[in-house]
């Protein structure tokens, strides 16, 4: 399990040095993400992608749940309406179809919506700061926080999320 830690860095140079130190501390690039203002230089940084900067994951999960529920309800109604020989198959089939359609449609909407967790960082990012999002193993949280505090007094710790989504 990992925890997601947020740090604000004042400029590109500080962000690059932080990236290098995290790599030397054996945090893989896959778990290090930076967010900056549109048009800002991201040379030498691992930029956050749509999975970190949008609500795509949460929207897809909600869509799957709502779609499967509506599909199952529609399956029950269809099984009674057509007097199906195997009503369970109709319910399960329509629940699966609803989950797929719900996931797809909700993820399209979620990919366009900014991540609610990053909303509080909008003004510092717009002012030219860089947001570091790093997913750290639970056993190394204190070590990584101390490393960043010691080597980057200009950086500002912005908190931690208790749970990191499984696949972004």
Automatic annotation (TrEMBL):
Superkingdom in the source lineage: Bacteria
Transmembrane segments: 64-82, 88-110
Keywords: Membrane, Transmembrane, Transmembrane helix
Protein name (Swiss-Prot/TrEMBL): DUF1269 domain-containing protein
Organism from which the protein derives: Roseateles saccharophilus (Pseudomonas saccharophila)
